[in-house]
Every structure is written in C-alpha cells, then in structure tokens.
Amino acid sequence: MTCDAPAPAGAPAESAWRSHGPRRRSTRALRVRTSAVLVAATVLAVLLVPPLVQLDQQAVDLAAKLEPPSWAHPFGTDDVGRDLLLRCVYGLRVSLLVGVAAALAATVVGTAVGAAAGALGGWADRALMRVVDTFSSVPHLLLGIFLVAMFRPGVWPVVISVALTHWLSTARIVRAEVLSLRSRPYVDAAVSGGASRWRVAVRHLLPAVLPQAALAAVLMVPHAMWHESALSFLGLGLPTHTASLGTLVQSARGSLLAGQWWPTLFPGLFLIVPTLALAGLAGAWRERINPRHRSELML
What per-residue confidence (pLDDT) applies to 22? Predict the structure, then answer.
C-alpha cells in the first residue's frame, strides 16, 4: 500500500513532463525554418538586388541627403544622399565574403594543427598546443588590430587577420576528436597491419573529423562577420569608401546624435539578423551531429 501510494501523484508530473517534448520539438523546428528562410533571403538579396536595382551605390546626391525611408528609398539615404538599401546590401556582401573566407581559412589551419597534434602525440602535441595557448592568451580584437595594422587597408588583410585569430577553437576540437578516434579498433587494426602514422591520419582520422571541422567553420562565419565589423567600425579594416556593415554604422554615428535613426538601424539589422540566422542553423546541425549537447542558440 505505501509503495504504490506515490504512483498516482507522480503520474501527472511525468505526463506533464512528456507533454513538453512535442512543444519543444515544434519550437525548435520553427526556429530552424525561420533561420533557413532568413539565410536564403540574405543570399538572394546579395545576389539579386545589385543587378536588379539599376542604381550606383556610390552615387552622391546632396539634395537628397538623410531622407527618411520612402518608396523611392525604402531604407532612406545617408549623409551624402546615397541609397541605404543598396549600401546595406553591398556591405552585407563584403561582410559575408570576409566571414566565409576567414572561416574557411581558419578551419583549414585549425584542422591541420589539431589533426597533427592528435595524430603525432608526444612532444609534437605538446609544442603545437603551447602555440595554441600562446595565441589564446592574447585578446582576439587586440591581435586582429595588430595584424591589420601591418597591411594596407583592404578586404584580404582583414580576412588574414580574422583567420589567424579564429583557428584556435577548431584546433582544440579536432585534436580532441582525433585523440578519441586513436583508440578505436579499426585504427588499432590499421596500425597492426603496418600502416604508417601519416597513412592512418590521412585515410582514417582526417575523414572522421571533417564533419566537426565543417560545423566549426559554419559556426565561425557569424563570429568572423562581427569581428570584421568591429575592425571596420574602428576604422582599421576596410577603406572608408568601401561599403561594409561596420563602416556604415561608424559613418552614421553623427546622424544618430542628430535624430536620424535609419542610417544606424538598417546596417545594424543587416548585421544582427543574418548572423543570428546562421547561428541558428549551425546550432541545429550541431544537435543533429551530437544530440547530447543541445544548442541554446535562439533567434
């Protein structure tokens, strides 16, 4: 009697807990669909708006400067009369270019270092991880400023700067994955069969870590875009005449103080919304690869 008494009280709590499962799944599915739609809209805007809108994004019209949003200019104009919609689209194109290129370069470097450290082990592992720790001890933005200052302003110096400051996490992830794979039976069988370390790393270890490396690259794109925008906002990344989201926000500071909100709002939205959408898709992918670690990324 006493053992069966708690059962009726626990049954509603258990059913209530289970009832949240479909709700969570539907909410997660809605976030993924929304993220996919936003990413698709971002790609379409970058590809289609410049050819379809026959306007020069650098055309100056002082008679139309700082006009609020209207049918002629949906996002308004900036302080020299340039159309903000076109400027935001071109700025998003530059930020995406820097983010994707830097993420790919950082992933290649991080995967190579992490795979070499995990596969070689011993003193090579210790030396490579000390290099990773040394780079990690310096703040990313400070190191990025130092690297950008060594080159003339342009897109590729920013790509190099962002890539050289963002490969560290990928190296750690790949190294940990390689260390866990080294104890697998098929790896032991390959070593027992006479395969060299190089052959084992190329034929068995590296293909197994590519999904994790690809996920790290996708997760790195939003971070790289923010890093590029921060450098451009500080005036250290791209030339001032180049439309990037960081330079657009930086040039709109005076307009915001004067009460014109649109030159700051729309570039900020073009930076925040696509990066959150990319992070949402990457979080869903991470949950599919490793369901034990549920992503908390929200839109």
Answer: 67
Instruction: In whole angstroms, give the CA distance from residue 191 to residue 196.
Output: 7
Single-letter amino acid code for the residue at 155: V
Question: How far is CA 279 from each of CA 100, 218, 273, 275, rounded to the nearest angstrom?
Answer: 13, 8, 10, 6
CA distances, 90 to each of 49, 95, 138, 258 (Å): 9, 9, 32, 25
CA distance 157 to 141: 14
Residue 145's nearest CA partner among 158, 135, 129 is: 158
pLDDT at 188 (0 to 100)? 67
Q: How far, in Å, are 104, 209, 210, 285 from residue 205 at the CA level?
A: 20, 7, 9, 21
User: What are phi and psi for residue 183, nearest 5 degrees?
Assistant: -90, 5
102 confidence band (pLDDT: 50, 70, 90): very high
